[in-house]
Design a protein that fits this description.
This protein is mostly beta strands. Helices cover 0% and strands 66% of the residues.
């Protein structure tokens, strides 16, 4: 019997009974796994139909995430077509053991920054708000990794300055991107 569960104990004879649990509220979770995909070493990954009217906010977790030879950027898209317009803006703080912190700003670009430098085995969390709603889409990403000679960490926030309904997420970079991506929808209530 679950904690605080209820039901009826029906005795069929002395010492013999049957338990009939009461129907209770269905268990619900704040996060629902929408997709989980292994990204094989490639410079671009198109994740189509991951945003819908079911959720306003998404949490995306990357595990064993790595990029060789550069940064990882992202665009949103609709029905397999990426939005390549100059309407993305972001700012962030990038730091490593050689440098305490550096601010970086990017306005009216054709992409949002996800990871600022080459790294392996990153722990990365991306939160995206309102991608499917017809309003500006915002995001926050944090990641950290232990490189060959230093510890790297990034905190980046940004927006798409258009009121567009997106269904897709496109990851691309100047080097090969690999790892596992899990996309969760956050319950609206």
């Amino acid at each position: 019997i679950p904690q605080y569960g209820s039901g009826t104990l029906y005795f069929t004879s002395a010492g013999v009974s049957l338990w009939f649990p009461s129907a209770g509220p269905a268990a619900s979770s704040g996060l629902t796994l929408i997709a989980k995909t292994t990204l094989t070493a490639a410079t671009q990954h198109n994740l189509t139909n991951v945003f819908s009217a079911s959720y306003d906010h998404y949490l995306i977790r990357f595990t064993n995430f790595s990029v060789t030879g550069g940064s990882v950027d992202m665009r949103y898209g609709t029905s397999g077509t990426p939005d390549t317009g100059s309407n993305y803006s972001n700012n962030g703080i990038y730091n490593d053991s050689a440098q305490v912190s550096t601010a970086s700003n990017q306005f009216n670009a054709s992409f949002n920054r996800l990871v600022g430098n080459s790294s392996a085995n990153m722990g990365t969390f991306l939160e995206i708000s309102s991608p499917f709603l017809t309003q500006k889409t915002t995001y926050t990403v944090s990641n950290s990794s232990l490189g060959a000679s230093d510890i790297i960490g990034n905190l980046i926030r940004g927006t798409v300055n258009t009121a567009t309904s997106y269904t897709d997420l496109v990851l691309f970079g100047s080097g090969n991107i690999s790892g596992v991506i899990s996309i969760y929808g956050l319950a609206n209530s």
